[in-house]
Write a structure and sequence with these properties.
There is one protein chain. The mean pLDDT is 95. The relative contact order is 0.11. It is built from four helices and no strands. The chain is an all-alpha fold.
């Protein structure tokens, strides 16, 4: 049990470190929170709120993975290396891809509700 407790503490420390060092993660959390507040205000269905929670979690998770890849690459070298550039660019691209997907999901959910007002 002690080993699992240490793993949990390390994971929580990783999230805390990312929150304190990465502006983009804080931006994603703020936007996600605003989306959830809007979903409650507009009285969206539980299914729609769950869909929004899923894409918000996916964006934040992808940003955490991107942060980990950047940190690992920077630990290897700060010099320009073509393969490290590929790793960082692909990780950033994953965040962009998931973020665009999340916006599309949000539009599909929110636009009909907003048009009905």
């Amino acid at each position: 049990m002690h080993k699992h407790t240490i793993s949990f503490k390390n994971a929580a420390s990783g999230i805390w470190t990312a929150l304190n060092s990465q502006v983009n993660i804080r931006i994603h959390i703020i936007i996600g929170s605003l989306v959830l507040l809007a979903s409650v205000y507009l009285q969206l269905s539980l299914d729609h709120i769950l869909d929004l929670l899923l894409v918000i979690a996916l964006v934040i998770t992808t940003e955490l993975i991107n942060t980990a890849i950047e940190a690992a690459c920077d630990a290897i070298t700060l010099d320009h290396h073509p393969q490290i550039k590929v790793a960082k660019d692909v990780a950033a691209g994953a965040v962009l891809f998931v973020s665009v997907f999340a916006v599309l999901v949000g539009m599909i959910i929110f636009i009909p509700k907003l048009l009905a007002l």
